[in-house]
Design a protein that fits this description.
Radius of gyration: 16 Å
Strand order of the largest sheet: 1-2-3
Number of domains: 1
Helix content: 25-40%
Shape: elongated
């Protein structure tokens, strides 16, 4: 079974200069624990607003949520199986 998505863990980073039009949140694959600044970008939010940050955090949590649903499906949870099927993430 091969998944189609970028594996997690995903994290949120602030990009651009605060107070400029280029300032935004980005969801990236991996974490910035090692100081790396060149992590693959999953998505970009339009700005540094609280709403954009909340949306970025929700998107960054997707790999964790996916793993939870997948583990429930493997244990026989019918709703979890339906959710996985609806996501179309596995070949």
């Amino acid at each position: 079974m091969t998944t189609k998505h970028t594996p997690g863990k995903w994290d949120v980073q602030n990009k651009g200069t605060l107070g400029t039009r280029s300032a935004r949140h980005e969801v990236v694959a991996g974490t910035n624990v090692d100081g790396s600044k060149n992590l693959p970008t999953i998505c970009r939010m339009p700005d540094l607003s609280a709403r954009s940050y909340a949306n970025a955090r929700l998107i960054a949590a997707c790999p964790t949520m996916y793993e939870f649903i997948r583990s429930r499906a493997e244990k026989g949870d019918a709703e979890a199986k339906k959710t996985l099927d609806a996501l179309h993430l596995v070949d």
